[in-house]
Design a protein that fits this description.
elongated; 11 helices; 315 residues; alpha/beta; two-stranded antiparallel sheet; 22% strand; Rossmann fold; six-stranded mixed β-sheet; 2 domains; 10 strands
């Protein structure tokens, strides 16, 4: 795989699969996993998210529909003076909402994102969330796209329509070449800021283990709507009492021997985790990005629904 970098200049072309690649044979276990994800995501998108999605995410703007004769109560700011001059009576412009949206999921494939305790791991949950959001877009005739990243852009699949395209996105996440170990949300944000020409909805699906991305994320939010979906493993928050354990930094390879039976060690671990969480939330708040926190030891659907319904109520 040739990785696409995202630093400076015009956005480089990112590698994409050929049209025939989707039909290539898959290992039976992976094919079964994709099928399970498809069945559940289709059901949830059609029954639970359908109305909430449309009420929350609207079109990118308005477009001109027609000119018609002025009637009492019309906004005088909408008067079309050229048509009015030709017709000799007041005419106004009528606009309609531009409904079509592009929904892009930016999925973190860094080493820390791949390290998790539950059987499905962060990557499995990321694939399910991607499928759910993309099917919701497809059922509303919107386009869905994908960016995978580590400490650089790994792959970009431009937004397109249709359930078959959604399954391709899921496969891209589950069947990916070995990514680089690090994380750079800034690289992902910079790249999307250059390749997305129309206003889009960007879901940033990551574990949040990164720093220094505030400026890049703020720049992305100036043109696009960004929602962060943070996948939280129980081990991110608390260290269980297991005696002597060796911890390894998934991205840097550094190792540390800890006595997890010591309450002071577990307390410091929890305090560091809390500080990291607060710093992440403060950064997202400062950039105007909403966050949905999904615990891997709990069902992810309810937090998503709460967020959608809260957004719908605000509108």
């Amino acid at each position: 795989m040739v990785a696409a970098t995202a630093s400076g200049g015009a956005a480089p072309p990112a590698p994409t699969l050929g049209d025939g690649a989707l039909d290539a044979g898959l290992p039976p276990q992976l094919a079964a996993q994709i099928r399970r994800i498809e069945i559940r995501a289709r059901r949830l998108a059609s029954t639970l998210l359908a109305g909430d999605y449309r009420s929350v995410f609207r079109g990118a703007g308005i477009e001109f529909a027609e000119a018609r004769e002025y009637t009492m109560g019309d906004d005088v700011r909408l008067i079309d003076w050229n048509v009015t001059a030709r017709m000799g009576t007041p005419w106004v412009k009528r606009y309609v909402e531009e409904r079509e949206l592009s929904v892009v999921c930016a999925v973190d494939l860094s080493a820390s994102q791949l390290a998790a305790r539950p059987a499905s791991g962060r990557l499995g949950v990321a694939a399910e969330v991607l499928a759910l959001l993309s099917f919701a877009a497809a059922f509303n005739n919107d386009r869905a796209g994908l960016l995978t990243f580590s400490d650089r852009v790994e792959r970009f699949v431009p937004p397109a329509r249709g359930p078959r395209h959604v399954l391709r996105l899921v496969r891209e996440v589950l069947l990916h070449p070995p990514p680089h170990p690090g994380t750079s949300i800034a690289a992902a944000a910079d790249y999307l800021g250059r390749v997305l020409r129309r206003r889009s909805i960007v879901f940033l699906i990551t574990d949040g283990f990164d720093r220094g991305f505030e400026q890049a994320l703020r720049a992305l939010t100036r043109r696009h709507e960004v929602v962060a979906i943070t996948l939280v493993d129980p081990l991110d928050l608390a260290l269980p009492a297991l005696g002597l354990v060796e911890l390894e930094d998934a991205e840097r390879g550094e190792r540390l021997l800890l006595d997890s039976a010591d309450r002071r060690v577990r307390r410091r671990y929890a305090q560091a985790a809390q500080a990291r969480t607060e710093a992440r939330r403060a950064t997202l708040l400062a950039t105007g990005v909403d966050e949905i926190e999904l615990r891997l030891d709990r069902d992810y659907v309810e937090p998503l629904l709460r967020y959608f319904r809260r957004r719908a109520a605000r509108r």
